[in-house]
Amino acid sequence: MRYRTLGRTGLSVGEVSFGGVGAMGKYGSVTAEQFSQVMSHASERGMNLLDTAPAYGKSQSVFGHHLADHRENWLICTKIGDCGPGDGGTFEPDVDQIISIVPQSLKDLQTDYVDILLIHSIEQYGAGAAAVEKILERGGLVDAMRQLQRDGRVRFIGVSGHVNELCHAVRTAEFDVALTYNSFNLLVQEAQTELFPIAREQNTGLLLGGALYQGLLAGLADFLLPRKDSFFEKSDPAFYRTDQLVARAARLLEFFDGDPRSLRQGAIRFSLSDPAVGSILSAMYLAEHVQENCAASDLPPLTPSEIETLLAV
Questions:
Q1: Is 2 inside a domain boundary?
Q2: Is 123 among the domain residues?
């Protein structure tokens, strides 16, 4: 496992980390006992960061079952707020209610503090700069997160969500970490031109979800497409350009000689090809997922020529 520094947090993170939807059982059934064994295997291979959220069902509790005895091995990232864009991006948060989520998260995770606390899906607070204005309001979410820092329950703060809103948020220099998803992979690259330069300028740590595009780059198209509504937001290209992206994923699979494992590892290496990315989040729930993803990190970085070839497929 290679490691990178997560922006100005100074945290050293493995290039591949646990994404919380694997722990919630979205891709396959999970028990806390079985998942703890997977996490032990991951720790032995050098993984040290997990990302979860109250919105991910039982995810925090499943992680917490393992963390109770192994907290020192893991950096924990969780979130406040709802998941998704809300009803037309007009969600008005009750700050006291949202802050009350954190003690429950700590209880579920069986820890006294989290290393990173993110505002979940910033676009639910508005579009573009309006979303950032909402969360920065005096007495609002960011003030509450700062209080949680002073109380010792949170080390670093950040935001997750769509690229447009994240660009506005990162420019404020208020956030240590940003999490973007389904925005830099072998099918979509908008974050690289829009968000990454701003993150480098502000030294903001970047976490990247969707290196395998929810499974489209993992050979799971037949599983995903009948469940498209539960895996992709309507604003996601995979929702409204599904046929085009599925066709490209098929061409990429053919490029990798029809081997889904090689495609998955190629996709991970591509998403790690930009040094702005601190770590990618993968929805692992089996030991073989850990083994495969760690092996991808151990492979040599893609060369510029290899990247150009993959983008031309």
A1: no
A2: yes
pLDDT of residue 93: 61
Torsion of CA 150, 155, 161, 162, to 10 degrees: 100
For residue 110, the 8-state DSSP code is: T
DSSP 143-173: HHHHHHHHTTSEEEEEEEE-HHHHHHHHHTT
214, part of any domain: yes
Query: Is 179 in contact with 150 (CB distance < 8 Å)?
Result: no
- Integer Cα distance of 258 and 251 in angstroms: 9
190 SS3 class: helix
Q: What is the pLDDT of residue 88?
A: 45
Domain limits for position 16: 11-311
With a cut of 80, say whether residue 183 has pLDDT above it: yes
pTM as predicted: 0.92
**Residue at 137 is within a domain:** yes
Count of structural domains, the chain: 1
For residue 83, the model assigns a pLDDT of 75
pLDDT digits (tens, 9 = 90+) for 230-258: 677 777 776 767 888 889 999 999 999 99
And the tokens for 104?
A: 């429950």
Q: Domain of 114: which CATH number?
A: 3.20.20.100
E strand or H helix at 3: strand 3-5
